[in-house]
C-alpha cells in the first residue's frame, strides 16, 4: 500500500465519471483544493506540472472515456436484434463482412474458433516462456515475428490469456512499445486482475499508479479489480483505505465487488467492518443479491445485533431471495440463545415449507432449545425427522439426546445412545461423558456414573471444573468419604468451591455421623467466605439444630440477614423471628398458610429448643407456633420427622462390644487372608445373632423429642392428625411396645372415628408383636362398630393370619370383606388369592380371581403368576397355560417369576420339551434367568433323564455369570444318576466342594440309592463312608437304602454287620428291624433274630413277613 500513498487516497477531488446519457447542460463541478501528504510520489491524477493531460483532438476526450459504454451498448443492441429478428429484419452494414474480410477470415482458420491462428500462436509463444527462468529471454526477440501483425485488441487478448504473472509483465512491457498500442483502462484492468490473482499486490499498486500517470482515469471495474486483489489476500487495512478514496470520488462499485470485500472481512471475523461496509453499500443504493444478505446477516448475528439481523432477513425475503440453510441456522441459534422459542420454531417451519433440509448444527440448536424448555416430545420427534431425512448426527446431538432420555427416565435408551456414539468413534467430548454420568446419577446408579468418569480419565480427557463437580456427586452418593475429600480438594484448586458441592460434602459428613468433621467444615466455609445459597444454609442449620448449637445458629442468621443477600428469603426471616419469639402477627394474617421455606425454618427452630431441653422456652415457642395458620401441621410434621430419625439404627460396628469385628475389618483392608476372614465371619455371626435377639437400637434423643412434643400438644388441647398418630403407633410397634400403641389408638378412637391409616398401623403393630388372635379380635371389634378398615389393613391382616397358619380366620376376613362390599384394590385381591392358595383352597382362590375381574379391578403380573400356581397345583395344566397366554395377550410385561412358574408346572406334568421351549423364549424376551430358574430347568431335565441337556444348561448358567448353588449341583447329580452316569455324578460333588460349596446329605443319598438299587453294594459302602467323613450324619433314609441293597441282592453277612454297626445310633424302624430279622434267620442266628423280634413286639412295631432276601440277585 506504500506505492499508493498519494492523493488518490488522500485528495478530496472527486472522480469525473461519464454517465450513460451525458447532459449538455451539465456543468463540470469546480475542483476542490488538493492536499498532498507525500513529497516523493507525484499526484497520479495530474501531470508533473500539475495540469490535466489533454487529448490531441480537443473535441474528444481520452480515447477510453466511452469505450466500455460503447462496447456494452453494442452488445445490448446485438442481443436485442437477435431476439427480435423477423423476416424483414435487415442486418446493419457494419456487421456485414466484405469479400476481402471473408477471405482473410478463412485464411486465418478462424471459422468456429475464438481467435485467429496468429493470435493463438502468440498466446502459445508467450505461455511457453513460463518454463524458462527469469532473465533468460528477451520479449522483443521472442515476439519479433509478431510485430505489426497484432492489433491492439488482439494484443489485449494475448495478454488476457496468460497464466503467469512474469509473462504478463514482460508482454505488457513489449506491448507498450508497439505502434498500435494506446493507453487504456481496459488493458490496465487485465494486468491488475492477473497480478491480484497471484498476490502480487505491490506490482498491482505500481501498475495502478502507472495507469494514472498515463492519463487513464480508473473506472468502477479497475477500482473493483484492485479492491478484489486486496480482499483476496487479506489486505483489509489497505482495502478499506482504497475503498474510502474510491468512495470520495463518487465511483459506484458493483455488487460483486462489495460481496468480495464483505466475504473477505467476514472470513477474518471483522464483523464490525462488515456491518459498516454494508451500511455504505445500502447508502450507495447498490442492489444486494442473495450472497450479500447471507454474509451480512451472519455478521449481524456474530456481533449480537439481533434486531438488525432479523430486519435484514425480512428485507431479503421481501426481495424474493430464498435464504440459505446457514442463514436459517444462524437465526435459529440466535433465537435459542435469546430464549425466543416461538421465533425459532417459526424459522424452522419456514425452512420446512421451502423444503430446505436442516444441517446437524441447526438440529442441535433446536434440540437444545427443546431441552431447555422441557419439551422433550418435540425434541424426540425432531430426532426422528433427522433420521428420516438422513441427517447425520454428531456428538453434540447425541449428547443432547442422552440428556433428554435422562430427563424422561429412559435410562436404557440413554445407555444405548452412549454406546452408539462410542461404536461410531464420535466419543471425544467431555460434555458427552458428563451427560452420561449425570443420567446414571439420576437413576441412582452411582457406580456406573463412576465407571463413565473413569473411562473419560483413561482417554486422557482433561477434567474441567464441572467434571470435578459431577465426580464429587458420584463419590458422595457412593459415600466414599476419602475419594470425595480428594475430589473436593481438586475442585478447590480451580477456585472457590460452589455452594452445591459444599452442600454435598456437608450432607455426606452428616449421613456418616461425622459431626465433628461437619462442624470443622462449616467453620472453614465461613472462614473462606463461601457464598451460601438457601440449600446450603438449610443443611448448616440442620447441623446446628442437631448439635444444639443455638449461639452459632443465631450468629449465622444475623450475619446473613445483615449482609442483604437473603433480604427476600422467607426462610431467614422466619428463622430470625422464631429465634426471637416475634410471632405476633395480625389476626387476618394468621389464616394464611405458610410457605415451605417458613415451615422448614419453624421446624428447625423448634428442634433447637427441644434439643436444648428448656421446657419453658419450648412451651413458649410451641404456643407461638400454634398461633400461626400452619402451626399444628408444622408440629405434626416435626413429630413424624423425629420418629423417622429415631427409627434409624445406630451403626453397630461403632459400638463398644464390636471392637473385635472392627479390628477384623481393618485387617481386611490391608491383606485379605483366610484367618482374618474366618475370624470376621465368626464375629459377624455372633453379633448378628445378638442383634436379632435384641430389639433394634433407636436414637432415644429423637424419640424423646417426639414424645415430649406430642405430650405438649395434647396438654395444650390440640389434636394430631392421623398420619402423625399412625407414625407413633408404628414406632411403638417396632419396639414391641404394644401397650403404648394401644393407648395412642385409644386416645384417637375415644374422640373420633379412627381413619384407615390408624387402623392399618394397629394391624401392623399386632403383626410386629406376633399377636394374630388380638389382630383378628381388633378387626372384628372395628367392623362391628361399622368402621371401614380399608383395603390396606385388610390385606395386612389376611397376610398375617396366613403366615401364622390361621387359614380359617383369613378366609372369614375375606368372606366378610366381600359381604360388606369393601372397596378392594389389586394388591388386596392378590393377597386373598395367595392366602387361599397356601391354604389349599384352590376353588375359592379361582372364584376370588373371577370376582376381581367382575369388579373391574385390573390384574397385575403378580395376579397372573399366582393364578398359574393355583391351576398348576390343581393339576389343571390347560388352565395354567390359558392364564399365561391371557397375561401375554393383555399386554402385561411378564417377569421371570411368571415364566419360571409356568416352566415348573410343565416339568411337573412331564412336558420337558415344552418347558425347554418356554425357557428359551424367556431369554429371547430379554429376561435373564436367575439361579432359581436354572435350578428348576435342570431339575426338569433330570426328571426326564436328559443328562446331556442338564449338563449343557449348567455350563450355560456359569457362562452367563450366574453362580450355581447346592440346589443346582443336587439337580445335576440327579440328572447324571438318572442317566446312569455315576462317575460324572461323583465328579459333580467333588467340583462343588472345590468351589467352596459343601454337599448335603441329599447329594450323597442320590448316589447311595443309585448304587444300592444297582446292586453295587461296595460302591454304596464307599459313598456311605464319604458321607460320614464329610461331617454329615446319616438319617433313617440312608440306613434303609443300605439295608435294602443288602436284602435285595442277598448280601447276608454285610447286611448283618451293617445292622449291628448302626443299631446303637439308628432310631427303631420297621423296615430296618424286619430286614435284620430276615438276615439273622438266613445266617442261622435264630437267637439274635428272636431278640430283634422281641424288641419290635415290645415297641409295638409290626414285623414285615413278606421281605425276600436275594430277590433281585436271582433275577439278574
UniProtKB/TrEMBL annotation:
Presence of keyword Cell wall biogenesis/degradation: no
InterPro entries named among the record's database cross-references: PPR_rpt, PROP1-like_PPR_dom, TPR-like_helical_dom_sf
Alphabetized Pfam families for the sequence: PPR, PPR_2, PPR_long
Annotated SUPFAM superfamilies: HCP-like
PPR repeat ranges per the UniProt record: 184-218, 219-253, 289-323, 324-358, 359-393, 394-428, 755-789, 825-859, 860-894, 895-929, 930-964, 965-999, 1000-1034
Chain intervals with Low complexity compositional bias: 17-35
Region of interest called Disordered, as start-end residue ranges on this chain: 1-67
UniProtKB keywords: Repeat
PROP1-like PPR domain sequence ranges: 263-409
PANTHER family: OS03G0856100 PROTEIN, PENTATRICOPEPTIDE REPEAT-CONTAINING PROTEIN
Family the entry assigns: Belongs to the PPR family. P subfamily.
Descriptive protein name: PROP1-like PPR domain-containing protein
Annotated organism of origin: Escallonia herrerae
